[in-house]
Structures are given as C-alpha cells and as structure tokens.
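Figure S7 source data.
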Amino acid sequence: MFDCHTHTTFSTDSVMSAEQACETAIKLGLDGIAFTDHLDYDFPGQMDFLIDFDEYFSAMEMIRQKYEDHLKVLIGIEVGIQPHVIRESEEVIRKYPFDHVIASVHLVDRQDPYEKEYYAGKTKKDAYSRYLEEIYQMVRNLESFDMVGHFGYITRYADYDDRTLRYADHSDLFDMIFKELIEHGRGFELNTGTYRSGRPDAVYDIEILRRYRELGGELVCLGSDAHQADHIAARFGYFAQVLRDAGFRYTVHFEDRKPVFDKL
Ligand SMILES: [Zn+2]
Ligand SMILES: [Zn+2]
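Tokens for the predicted zinc ion complex:
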C-alpha cells in the first residue's frame, strides 16, 4: 500500500519531517509514500504555501536514497488551484520531475471552506455545488496533473448538521468531473484524513466510487493528508475495504507521472 498524500515541513502547516514520515511508513508496513507538499499561488491571508523547488528536490532525493531499500519514496506535489493561477502552477508542474501530482481546490471565490464565513447564507446544496463546480473547472482547464485531491474537503468544516457529501445530491456535477477525468487518464484520491477521528462526523458515500467505476474509472488511491506522523495511513484498512466494496481491485500511484497499479 502507498500513502499518496502527505505533507512535510516544506508545507507551512506541517510539523512532520520527511524522515519521521518514512520511519512511520516503514513501521506501518507501507510499500511507499508520496510527499505532496503544498503549492498554492496567491493564497489570501497570513499563511503562505510556496516552496523553493530546487531545495525541495535536493532534500527529497536524499531521503529517497536513504530509504530506498525499505520504502519507495515518491516526490510529489499538491497544487492548490484557483482559476487565475492555472498557468503559473502548470509551469511548475512541467518544470520539475515530479512523480505524483495532486490538484486540489482549497479556495472557492477567494474563500476557504475551512472558514465558517464560506457557509454564511448558503444552503448545504449551494455550498457543496459551488465547490464541485470549481473542481470541474479545474479538471477541464488544468492540463497537467494526475489525481484530484480530497473531494471531501468541503465536508471537513461545513457548518451543517449532516455534513456528508453525497453522490445523489450532485450527480450531474460528479458525472461531468468523472467523464473529464476518465477521458484524460486521471483519477481521484480517497482522502482518509477527512474522515479520521476528531473530524466532524461526515461519512464517505461509497456511491461516489461506484459511479466512477461504472463510468469506466480505474484510477483511485488512498491518501491520508498527514501533517503529523501519527496520521500517516489513517484508516487505510477501513477505506481499502470501501474501495473493494465499490468494485476496485487495484489502487494506483504515479512514478515519473506514469500510473503504477497496486493490488488491493
Ligand atoms: Zn489539500
Ligand atoms: Zn494536503
């Protein structure tokens, strides 16, 4: 198994060193780990999610060599997309030799669904639809990426009694996103960090996976979104079974931007 979504101290919001992450992954018996630190151009507010990629690659190459006998280390990135930063984000994606590229929506209309203000005056249906529309625009317009990050991001901090994101409530948008992904050989991750304990009590709607599978989709992976070592591979056993129940026999990770399948 691979954990395809993790953040090291190259991300402003992470406290986990790459060594700690590797030691933990080995202890847990993972086959590999993808480091996918944040790049978010023009992120509003105090936090800045930018990386010196020359420094990043030289540090990660050393980590890769250090652990090569025990763990496959993938050098990836999680690019936070807003419509006006697509071109400059794409330049970075193409410039550096990444293995695994995640494209995520962290901001909708310049607001972070992490903050309560995003939900003010919106019904759940409106708030979630706007989020999925942004994902759809991203998958249509971003030309170079491998996986969509965390559909469920919107549920993490949503201000509703029932936070679950359901396929049936947004079937048109999900279908549009899935068709676009399948046509271009891309997939999406099941972000287990969204459902780890201590988070709001959203559940994962397996119909999202079933529908993607039904349309011919094959590229799914598990990512913990760990920003600290004890979150690596969070709930992977449970979600591996969810994937099997939805009809998947393999997960995927990307090496040198090419899909490699791992038996579930
Ligand atoms: Zn993210
Ligand atoms: Zn992340």
